[in-house]
Amino acid sequence: MKVERNKSLKAFNTFGIDAYASEFISITSVEDLQVILSKNSDVFVLGGGSNMLLTKNINQLTLHVALKGIEILKETEKHVYIKSQAGEDWHKFVLWCIENNYGGLENLSLIPGNVGTSPIQNIGAYGVEIKDTFVELEAIEIETGKPKTFTYEMCEFGYRNSVFKNELKGKYIITSVTFKLTKENHKLNYSYGAIQSELEKRKITEPTIKDISDVVIEIRNSKLPNPKEIGNSGSFFKNPVISKDAFLKLQENYPNIPSYKVSETEIKVPAGWLIEQCGFKGKRYGDAGVHTKQALVLVNYDNATGTEIHNLAKEILKTVKNTFDISLDIEVNVI
Ligand code: EPU
């Protein structure tokens, strides 16, 4: 295990923020992880770095989870149980599943990050969330170094949420995740408007999981910035859920406001739309900006600091609150 000192984290966070870790270790085995934690439990854990904004240097031992490996645990006639180690790249894992004709994750193609961090915010896109195929995960308790298996119920999944963002925040390091995928009769989900219209454009009437993945990749590429080109963390804010009464009032002034019904009394409104209405879409302040094609995504054009991006986020929060009386929640972990 090599300890690196004063290590730049620029290549380890998709925002491309040039913050430094005083000490840095790449973890390639669970045993190594347990040895380290037995000596020092004051650690900062770095997965794919795709859902964090670093606003300061890290003066703790930084553990980069680089555990690799994909394994088929068991197969039935219709299903396969696949365990992926936490450090596998999410999109590569999804593509591997598609190549092997294992269905269930295709709508989640091209989401940045690692497998191990996917359950923390229950990643989701185009009508699918990882909770839909999740079986269990293995994690190491930071305080004790002890392994623990978390079932579906124990993870308390919600919209962009889980127990690991709440009571257990900072308490465990996820080391592997197991999914149950289909081998046949895949349950395709292409109800999302953009997927449907892209399939129609391609004249595909009976899509395969590969078709869905291709279409999702096309849609994401057309709307969302590629973190390898422009630093970003995907959606910076969550879509707010407001009361039906508040929504009906808003609709009087903004008849075109998009919405999704959550329940009889609650409506979800796209934060991207609210932010665009406030005039932020495509705005740039130095190297910090709001993406030109999706106002929900904040970007680092080159050398923005985490604080500059955070200040822009605060400005957006204030303006949306003043304009719509809606308090947005930041989805990204601000460090
Ligand atoms: N919209 C605007 N202006 C914008 C952005 C969006 O008016 O700048 C409107 C769109 O026209 C559309 C609606 O908002 O009517 C929804 O937009 P979109 O389909 O792009 O989805 P979203 O609600 O903005 C969510 C997820 C994305 C996910 C997409 C597709 C959240 C916080 N974000 O975005 O997730 O890819 O749905 O399922 O739930 C991520 O988490 O990093 C992420 C990209």
**What ions, cofactors and ligands are bound?**
uridine-diphosphate-2(N-acetylglucosaminyl) butyric acid
From N to C, what is the helix and strand string?
Answer: EEHEEEEEHEEEEHEHHEEHEEHEEEHE
Individual helix count: 8
Placed side by side, the strands forming the largest sheet appear as 6-7-12-10-11
Oligomerization state = single chain
Q: What coarse outline follows from CA principal-axis ratios?
A: globular
What percent of residues adopt helix (DSSP H or I)?
25-40%
Strand elements, count: 20
Overall structural class, as computed from helix and strand content, comes to alpha+beta
Strand content: 25-35%
Low-confidence stretches: none
Mean pLDDT: 95
Question: What does the main sheet amount to?
Answer: 5 strands, antiparallel
Task: Provide keyphrases for this structure.
335 residues, alpha+beta, 5-stranded antiparallel beta sheet, 4-stranded mixed beta sheet, 8 helices, binds uridine-diphosphate-2(N-acetylglucosaminyl) butyric acid
Structure in words:
- The chain has 335 residues and is α+β, with helices and mostly antiparallel strands.
- It has helices at residues 30-39, 90-99, 152-155, 193-201, 209-223, 244-253, 271-277, 306-324, and strands at residues 4-8, 20-27, 43-46, 52-53, 58-65, 70-75, 79-85, 124-125, 128-129, 134-141, 147-151, 172-182, 231-235, 241-243, 260-261, 266-268, 284-285, 288-290, 297-300, 333-334.
- The strands form 6 sheets. The chain has a 5-stranded antiparallel β-sheet. The chain has a 4-stranded mixed β-sheet with strand order 1-2-5-3.
- Strand 18 and strand 19 form a beta hairpin.
- Helix 4 packs across helix 5 (209-223).
- The radius of gyration is 20 Å and the shape is globular.
- Uridine-diphosphate-2(N-acetylglucosaminyl) butyric acid (EPU) is lined by residues 125-126, 223-224, 234-235, 238-239, 258, 270, 272-273, 276, 281, 294-296, 331.
